[in-house]
Amino acid sequence: MVEKKRVAVIGGGFSGIAAAKTFAERGHEVHGFERGPAFGGVWELSRSYPDCQTQSPKDLYHFTDQTYGENVPEWPKAPDVNAYLHSYAEKHGVARLFRLNTSVETMERRADGRAGWTLTLQEDGCTKREDFDFVSVATGQFSQKHVATHPGEQEFAAQGGEVIHSSDYTDPSTIKGKRVVVLGGSKSALDIAVNVANSGAKSVTLVYRKNVWRLPYFVGGVNVKHLLYMRAQEEQFNGWLPSPIGRVLRMILKPLIWANFRGLEAALTFQLGLKKHKMVPDEPIEDIVSCSIGVATPGFFEALDKGTIKAVQGSIERYEEGAAVLSNGGTVPCDVAVMATGWKQGLSFLPAEAQHKLVDSDGLYRLYRFAVNPSLPDVGFIGFNSSFCSVLSAELVSHWLVRYADGQLEHQPSADEMNASIDVMQEWRRKDRPAAQVYGGLCIAPFHFRHFDELLKDIGATKRKRANPLVELFVRPSTAAYGEFLASAPQYHAG
Ligand SMILES: Cc1cc2nc3c(=O)[nH]c(=O)nc-3n(C[C@H](O)[C@H](O)[C@H](O)COP(=O)(O)OP(=O)(O)OC[C@H]3O[C@@H](n4cnc5c(N)ncnc54)[C@H](O)[C@@H]3O)c2cc1C
Ligand SMILES: NC(=O)c1ccc[n+]([C@@H]2O[C@H](COP(=O)([O-])OP(=O)(O)OC[C@H]3O[C@@H](n4cnc5c(N)ncnc54)[C@H](OP(=O)(O)O)[C@@H]3O)[C@@H](O)[C@H]2O)c1
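Above are the sequence and the flavin-adenine dinucleotide SMILES. Below is the predicted complex in structure-token form.
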């Protein structure tokens, strides 16, 4: 008999919703906490910049048991995603499990000698403490702003200049007629530069440090989803724990794999005009594919051609009145500087001792299956396996975690096994695949199938692949099929 637990879920984005639903369906008493005024996490409307749309196609960015409406575009806009998330939370009875405007401030081991944690909650100006048998942390990787600061910023602001983080750029009317500098070279930076240029800014300058590969939604007319999410493609990258057969195959096929990626680079360089924009990256594309590789924002390279966006390689050195002085010595007129400089990782509510166990000194998280740390009992992490289809990865790991918490995995790993596996993964990230270090090492892309196979095997799913081996090798994952795979595992109910 599995004991019914009182479970806390911290965070009301996709991962928190997945965790709350999965634990509740197994019979646990779930209490969700979201510090914001509404569900949605990165898709909450007050945090989404205009024109923001997914990079994942819609058939790979939903839960296994609910699709988007027919009218939603192939790459849903932020309001579509937000509406989906809300309808899902209502329909599946998850919304009522959450307390909004409730922030988890601290988390410490229970003092009553029982397993679990005591959370300190800040709710409507009141501080409360509540005990839980198990905690699911679903706080996301992109919810603590990293705002780069530069000398002269205070004077710049006092003289009427403005410095904002990318997630605070929500109203295009604020930049009309302004000279805007966007700092950063990743997805938020390009999206915002394009939106600002289309919204009546006087000038837009993108200041970025390094050239990176980006994928357009269509490569040579082919939807990128047909190229990116294949077992056959995935096997060409140096994933963790390659099987002996996989290792030999990669050796034999090395020239073909090399040619495949050079072909892709040539196609991208040609299609996006990277040479003329002096934006050809130095690194081979196969070495850098991870969650940080972004979709090339539609309209960005066209705006460079038209001159409505100017791109300068470098960084901001300091501010002067009405200008940003760059590291290359140049000066760019600037009324508004948008810091598209990303996010900080970290879980400030965890005690320092727990943080030391969880994160190595180089910032890499120590998580078995991207979900648990054997030195931190009664807590698990959802959405720390981010991917190119993060909703599905969050759902799958939620199913893994509830079974782990209930001792219901087909093979319940020992602490030694988990530590050994974590060490192998850390070694792989540090030595074999540095790209896997992005965002604290909490990204499974491009190794979706590998990770999902591991989770399903642990869960005890008897069905883990589609029947047709060719489809399985050359076709993107089917979200609905993963629902069937999960259903093929032994079922149980707590309490
Ligand atoms: C603009 C943008 C677009 C993206 N597009 C894609 C895409 O196309 N495909 C893809 O796979 N991924 C995409 N991602 C990655 C995205 O992060 C995931 O897809 C997914 O939305 C993450 O959900 P989450 O619930 O894990 O985290 P979040 O959405 O960040 O939600 C975490 C929640 O936890 C809450 N929280 C944090 N700390 C506390 C606390 N102490 N107490 C209470 N609540 C707390 C936050 O307020 C937040 O609501 C995108 C990310 C961004 C920023
Ligand atoms: N439409 C969408 O689907 C969408 C939109 C936005 C974001 N996202 C996703 O959300 C995640 C975060 O993306 P993001 O663009 O917000 O952040 P990010 O990927 O972390 O990128 C941050 C950028 O800021 C630069 N930077 C950081 N500190 C800097 C400094 N001090 N000076 C100059 N440059 C600095 C980084 O450059 P270096 O690389 O040189 O460090 C990098 O280019 C990604 O996974 C992304 O794919 C998706």
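Residues 52-55, 142, 148, 166, 183-189, 191, 208-210, 291-292, 294, 315, 340-343 surround NAP (ligand 2) (CB under 6 Å).
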